Amino acid sequence: MANRTVPYPSFNYVVLINGPGDLEGLFGGFSEVSGLGYDREIDVTLKRGVVNAPALWDWISSGGIPTKRDVVITLRDEANNPVTSWKLTNAAPTKYTGPTLLGKGGGDVAIEELVLAAEAIEIAPGS
Fold it and tell me: pTM (2 decimals)?
């Protein structure tokens, strides 16, 4: 994808939770992702997202220590084709910030910010 001059549109970061139990295969969409690098700690921040998955919400808001899951974050282009993926190994939510609520209907759960701590990160260009 040489010479790209237009940024990818909003909500093109798709998040897939791979783990045991009923969380396998759930999706969320986010417009901003940061922290996809490696320093002694791997803390990835997902911002301005929408998910439609009660089980994912249960994982985010569970009391105590949440179960660690593998998480795949994929950047998609305008045609919904994957551009690059990042796999977070043994990730768990460490912070959640809710959105400003606007009285519109729907079953989606809006997320202003979700921070995941992970043990390792892998990059898979063009996945």
Answer: 0.76
The tokens describing 85, both together, are 């993926």
Following CA atoms 80, 84, 89, 95 in sequence, which dihedral angle do they give, to the nearest 10 degrees?
A: -70
How many angstroms separate the CA atoms of 17 and 55, rounded? 11
How many CB atoms are located within 10 Å of the residue 97 CB?
11
What pLDDT, in 10s, does the model give residues 61-115? 766 777 888 888 988 888 888 888 999 999 988 888 877 666 665 555 567 788 9
Task: Quote the DSSP letter at residue 23.
Answer: G
CB neighbour list of residue 52: distance below 8 Å, 6 or more residues apart: 27, 107, 108, 109
Q: How many CB atoms lie within 10 A of CB 36?
A: 16
pLDDT on residue 80: 81
Of 53, 45, 52, whose CA–CA distance to 13 is shortest? 45
